[in-house]
Amino acid sequence: DPELSMMFAWTNSYNKQVRFKCGIGTYVNKTGNFMVSKDMGLWTRKHTGKADKETENTIDEQVKTALMYYNQLATDKDVMKEVTLDKRKMSQLLGVLFADFAILTTEQASIVRDLLSKTNNSFDENSKWSLWAFYNYVTTALQQSHPKTWMEDQRILHYFIDSIVQFTKVETPIVEDEEETVDPDQVDLEDMIAEVEAKTTPTIEEQIAEDEASV
């Protein structure tokens, strides 16, 4: 999708006050905003025990399924572009995000309100009243969120929009790891060592025979 780039986001802390959190999302090239799926496989872990190893394994799994999350978000974006709202409906959605879901501060809600009032915008080339435009109004405001809550705020926004339009789930086949191809002329170091040892190290029978011959 020419409008979206893949994103891997994470949050961490040096003082262990915030759990490590990571997940796959997309970066909106035109606006500089982000999309984080409601079911992106968001993962958190305390800084205890085998956290390092579990974190490494989780990142590996998320990267393997990144295409699935990317394709879903790209499809969701296209769906939002087809939904048209008026200012009143957008104001109602803003009120729910502010009062019920509490992902916007008063200052952030003001940012969205100001964007709604502007005549021109660069969020959607087709209509400033599309659901996709509104989504970008909110994600613009969410750039002011505290790093501790930013990823969860993004996820809740997508969950809320999904509850309205009910995005169609996109099934993306997971590509299995390709079998490693081995060059027939490549020399295996372990095989070479075994071959050399077989030639230079006598068997027990050979060693006994050699000892008897020397007596």
Task: Explain this structure.
The protein is α+β, with helices and mostly antiparallel strands and 215 residues long. It is built from eight helices and four strands, in the order E-E-E-E-H-H-H-H-H-H-H-H. Strands 1, 2, 3 and 4 form a four-stranded antiparallel beta sheet that branches. Helix 4 (106-117) runs antiparallel to helix 5. The chain is elongated and about 105 Å long.
Low-confidence regions: none
Mean pLDDT: 80
Number of helices: 8
Oligomer: single chain
Question: H/E element string?
Answer: EEEEHHHHHHHH
Structural class: alpha+beta
Distance between the termini: 83 Å
Largest sheet: 4 strands, antiparallel
Q: Tell me the overall shape.
A: elongated
Which range does the strand content fall in? 5-15%
Query: Helicity range of the residues?
Result: 40-55%
For the secondary structure, the number of strands is 4
Rg over CA atoms = 28 Å
